[in-house]
Write a structure and sequence with these properties.
Blueprint: H1 2-6, H2 9-27, H3 35-43, H4 46-67, H5 74-79, H6 81-95, H7 100-127, H8 163-191, H9 195-203, H10 209-233, H11 242-262, H12 268-288
Length: 289
């Protein structure tokens, strides 16, 4: 209860907003993903903020997995297990050997980098006019298009009549998966900021909107559970944050359900632009504090 009593009114407002954002991120607005990590690291001890955000994410994951329980590429998730676990282990080792000051700055840098990457990606997408451009991913229900990637076997587009070319493509795909999976595991362990990494990876996999959201929901539900014992051992989760996390979990779950209703009510592009700007500002504050 000491942590709850130490919270100022401003900190409480920030906490409630962050909990709501986590719920909305899982079912409606992906651009909100990095904002809670950045803000929570400013209003409380950075190491413990990682634990609080993780517990809230696990709570909201339950809702997201239930809503998209039939919409996930399980085969792709299996292929990501080894790279992601490697990244989580690297992130855990990093957490065990850095101070809270360094950790706050690293969180800020990670979030700033991927926020900028997301902004650039969105800018490039608006300029792409060719017929084969990737679909813009909105966090809403859609049955349009194929439920999975077309013409692929084990995540690879086969090259007709050319076994050596197929092997080369498969090897290339494995290296890509290893890089993105490891980076996703590391960033989600250190800063709960693996969302932008996996969004970029999954968008290049040409999923339909429904499968994009469902695969990401199942991915983070599994990864967040794996992260839990590592976070405990790294000192990010202890009994002092349980009451605070309990309050936030209720808010996160409620807003995860609300997200399904709000998703079509607000212009996605305008909303995402505001959130990306706020996230970048928060990251800069963390780096320079």
């Amino acid at each position: 209860m000491d942590m709850i009593e130490a919270f100022t009114p401003v900190a409480w407002v920030a906490f409630f907003v962050c909990a709501a954002c986590i719920g909305l991120t899982k079912t409606a607005f992906p651009a909100l993903g990095a904002l809670p990590s950045a803000v929570m690291a400013m209003v409380m001890v950075p190491r413990l903020s990682i634990g609080v955000v993780l517990l809230l994410c696990i709570s909201a994951d339950v809702v997201a997995v239930w809503l998209y329980r039939h919409d996930a590429d399980v085969a792709e998730l299996r292929r990501l297990v080894i790279p992601v676990l490697g990244g989580v282990m690297m992130g855990w080792g990093f957490l065990m050997h850095v101070s809270d000051i360094v950790l706050a700055r690293v969180i800020g840098i990670i979030i700033a980098v991927f926020t900028v990457v997301d902004i650039v990606r969105r800018y490039r997408k608006t300029r792409r006019k060719t017929s084969d451009k990737l679909p813009v991913v909105q966090a809403c229900d859609s049955d349009a298009g194929d439920d999975r990637r077309s013409g692929m076997k084990d995540g690879v587009v086969p090259v007709s009549g050319n076994d050596s070319a197929n092997k080369a493509v498969a090897s290339s795909q494995w290296l890509v998966r290893l890089g993105w999976g490891s980076l996703g595991g590391f960033t989600t362990m250190v800063a709960n900021a693996g969302g932008p990494v996996m969004s970029l990876y999954l968008m290049n996999s040409r999923y339909s909107i429904r499968y994009f959201i469902g695969t990401q929901a199942w991915f983070f539900a599994a990864v967040n559970l794996v992260k839990f014992p590592f976070s405990v051992s790294a000192g990010a989760i202890d009994t002092s944050i349980v009451p605070l996390a309990g309050i936030g979990a209720v808010i996160a779950v409620i807003f995860a359900f609300i997200g399904k209703k709000l998703v079509t009510a607000i212009p996605q592009r305008v909303f995402d632009a505001i959130i990306l700007g706020l996230t970048l500002c928060s990251a800069i504050i963390l780096v320079t504090k």
